[in-house]
Structure formats: structure tokens, C-alpha cells
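Re-running the complex after MR caught last week's input typo. The corrected sequence lines follow. Everything else is unchanged.
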Amino acid sequence: MAEKILTRNFHLPGSHTLALYRETGGYAGLEKALAMKPAEITEAVKRSNLRGLGGAGFPTGVKWGFLPKGHPGPIYLVINADEGEPGTFKDRYLLEKDPHALLEGMIISAYAIGAHVAFVYIRGEYVQPWRIFSRAVAEAYEAGLLGKNIGSSGFDLDVIVHRGAGAYICGEETGLISSLEGKKGWPKLKPPFPAIRGAFGAPTIVNNVETICHVPHIVRRGAEWFASLGTKTQGGTRLYSVSGHVERPGVYELPVSVTLRELVYEHAGGVPHGKRLKAVVPGGSSAALLTADEIDVTLDVDGLRNAGTMAGSAGVIVMDETVSIPEALMVVARFYAHESCGQCTPCRESTGWIYKMTRRIIEGRGRKEDLDTILDVARRGAGTTICAFFDGAVGPYISYIEKFRHEFEALISK
Amino acid sequence: MNARGAVKVEFTPEQLVEVRRLQGLYPDRRAALLPVLQLVQDVFGHISLEAEEYVAGLFDLSPAHVHEVVTFYTLFFREPKGRHVISVCHNLTCHLLGAQQVLTHLKKRLGVEVGGTTPDGRVTLLSVECLCACEIAPMLQVDDRYEGNLSGEKVDRILDGLA
Ligand SMILES: Cc1cc2nc3c(=O)[nH]c(=O)nc-3n(C[C@H](O)[C@H](O)[C@H](O)COP(=O)(O)O)c2cc1C
Ligand code: FES
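Corrected-run output:
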């Protein structure tokens, strides 16, 4: 069994408390970090090959490097805890079971990028995680780990916990920033990227919860150690959320070089009731579907990209042979139709109409031309919108239809 | 109560202190709009048009801006809701593992459709997108709590526990 890093304390009672976090070596990374130069930390994060674990897989150290040098005004760190990608639930575990790991990562990261205010944007439905995390923030203030002159280092950091109010699009980093600013969560055109002009007009780094939880370990145990856990282009372990038709659904922390077959069969126990595997969504609902024959792929960002899908949020949804793929697509299409923010015409219109078409196919009113219309609309719309939301919808539209076209056709010709 | 049966929307002095505190947290006070709307909903149960205007006044924002924000987010209620809100997840994993049966069972037990509130004002029933607890699918949220691995009996027990 590979070493657990982010989940090592999950099974311990009181894992969310400062006392236990400290007992198990917590905040040792911070002490080391505060004795380093900020630029050295960014360098270490670059060398570690840590890649963003929120969805896009962008190299974290490289992103930090985009901040303007010697910026005179404030710089913000924003933690994306808006976890909303269907099939994903790992950030909820991190917030509830190890909130101090996130806080330690935030203090180190803020120090590295020169931020003195950090926001944590937690999805509104996560009431329990929000309570637990907020308690950890209060504990950290009392212990002098937040506020002024942290650990007598002269470094100051305030943490503001901000709750969302129900909207998947607020997980997209510029939509999140709009929402944090008190507006509806409309994404913004890039460039300028948030690192140049983000929250409140200031240079801003947005990172996922899990990404930041890795930072203390990189500082403490070294970039080379972290890099060696993964593949050539992505370091570390990652939390895989596994759900659907498996014996043991849950969060699995594994090196990113693990294969989808190993994850489903060895770790999650395989498909229950002796049923056969039909398909797997490897990276949250926006990732293209893989068939049962396509699961011998490694689950790192590049491995899944080469397989024509994406690592996304590492939400793995397993479907057995009884699943109707057209019905699954209708459920997924309903989600994108409901969550489109309505700003860009191709996304607003296509998600709505494609949902209606999938529904009529299920209801036996499908038309022969429907499948090609969906594929055409999806292909034409991809890449034309302000944010990647629609591209995420295109992943399932195209892959479900292309890989299981016969199932759709059988419903249409009925 | 006014003509529409709505409660007059006005914060107490203590609540106004909280509004000022929230506004002071952010580099731009307008960023406190979401938390203040949450406060309105906690205090008054929902966010009426009158409440939107009141909040707009607290921020020097136009009522139209506040309306735009309120209508964008699913957790803001513009009509009175039940004492409890049950939101059944209908996204992919929950769908695969029986969300529809859960919803059918709840509709029957409560005698309401999705979006409806029981006549006694006890429960509002909703059907929502992924709550990101797919490992316990099929699941639902009841007020602040997540409940998963649902069966008919478990749903009944949850209902029995609601005042
Ligand atoms: C539609 C959409 C939804 C997203 N939802 C989330 C989310 O819930 N959580 C998250 O961390 N990133 C989400 N992202 C990715 C963010 O835009 C951003 O890339 C990420 O927060 C950056 O952090 P990272 O580099 O640490 O991954 C989403 C992106 C898109 C396009
Ligand atoms: S699909 Fe229901 S919680 Fe994710």
C-alpha cells in the first residue's frame, strides 16, 4: 500500500483539532517555510510538479510565478472549496477531517506569494464542513497561527471564510471571484488572468483545497520526494473520489500513476453483484466517458489527456452493465442545462436544447437526426465561450453518443 | 404584516452591527452581499422583494442588482419555505443508485410535488444537482445535514424526526 499523505489522519478521532494536528507533525512545514525566502518556496512547488487538483491540472508553481513582481498593492490568495463537480467529494473530507492541513498550506502559500489576506470560498450546501473549518480558523487565531506576526516571523495573514449560495459555476475561478465580490457568479473573460487582475481588481491566486493541502509536505519533505511519487509530469498523490457501482465507494489517496483498473478493482473492490463493468467517468462529469475496455490508463493529468478524456477533479463514477447510457446522458445534460450561467449564447442555448433532445430520446420521441445535431452543436460550441463550462459539457455529450451510439439508436428507432 | 402577508423586513440594532461587521471584512463592502442575504434568510425565512430593497439600501446598491444576485443562486428562497427543506440529489451517481425511487417515496409520503411545501408548512421538497456526497448515494440534504445510503425505511425515519 502506498503511503498516505493527505489522508493519513482521517481515521483518527479528533483529526480536525489543532492538538491532534500538532501531535502528528502538523505546522512543522510552516516553521520551516517561514525560515525560507518566499521565492524558494515557489521554486520548490515548481520542482515538485504539483498540478492543480481542482480540475484544470495547471502547474501550481508556474501559476504562482505569473504574479507581477514587486506589486505595490495587495495580493490575494483564494481557496476554491466550492466543490461541485458531479462525482467529486474529496474536498469535503479535507475540510471536515483535516482543516488545519488546509490552513497550514494556506499560510505557507500566502507567504510564498506575498498575500496577507486569504479567502476560502466554501459551497453553501457544505454547512458541516464550513462549521468545522471555521472552528479551525478560530483555533488557529487563538494559537497565533493566524493574524499578526505569525510565529514571530513578522508575517501577517488574515483568513476570511466566505460561503457560496448554490451555483456550480462559482467553482470556475473567475465566476468564483465574481461571487466573492458580491455579484452573481458570472465568469470573466481571460486575459487578464486572475494572477494579474483577480479579486477586487488585485493580483489573485486561486487554488483548490487539495492542491494547497500538499504544500506543507512539499516544504517539509522536499520537492524531489514529492515529484518522485508521481509521473514525470505530475508529482504526488491525489484523492480519487470513487462512486457508483463499486463495492467500496469512497475517497482513495493514491499516487497519480495508479491505473483506472487498479483503482476500480483493487482499491474500490470492483463491481458488485457479479455484474460486468460498462463504463467509467474518470474525472468528474465533465470528463469524457471511458468504456470497460479503456480503463488501462494511468490517472495522471497527461495519461488521461492522452486517452482522450481528462483527470479533471478525479471524481470517478462507475457504471455497471445495467446502466442505460442515454438515460445517464440525459441526467448529465439536465445538470449542464440547469447550471449554465446564461452569459454566453452557445452555452445557454445548446445546454438547454441538448437536454430537451436527450429527454425526448428517452421518452421515445427521438428523431433520426437528433444524434448528429447534438454532436454538431457540441463541436461547434466548444471553445467559443468565456469559460470552460461548455467544454466540460461537450465531453459527455460527444463521448456518450460516440461510444454507445447503438443504445441511442435503439431508443430512436423504437 | 403588510397587504401581501409578508413580515416587515428590518434588522434589529444587533443584526445591523453584524451587517457592519460583515461589510468591514472585505476590501470592498459590497462583497458582504451574499452573507447579508444569508442573514436575511436566516432571520425572515426567505428573501422577499421588500427584503431585496431593504438590503439594497444597506449597501447603496440598486434593488435590481440585489434581485439579480438573489435570483442567480439556488439557496436563496424568494417565497416562504417549509420549516424543513429536503433536497434530494438527482445527479448521476444518485440516479444510478435509486434517486428516483427516493423522490417518488418522498412525494407520496409528503403529498407534494418537487418545489412544493406541505400544507402544514412542515417540509419543502426539492430535487437538486450533485451535493458532492456521491459515496453515500442515493443521498439528500435535510436542512443542514447530509443523509445517505437511503432506503424507504431510512427516509421514513428522517421524516419522523422532523418537527
Ligand atoms: C465549470 C467549472 C467548474 C469548476 N469547479 C471547480 C470546483 O468546484 N473546485 C475547484 O477547485 N475548481 C473548479 N474548477 C477549476 C477552477 O476554475 C480553477 O482551475 C481551480 O480552482 C484552480 O485551482 P488549482 O489550480 O489548484 O486546481 C472549475 C472549472 C470550471 C470550468
Ligand atoms: S450524485 Fe448525488 S451526491 Fe453526487
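None of the earlier attempt is carried over here. The mean pLDDT of chain B is 96. DSSP finds seven helices and four strands in chain B.
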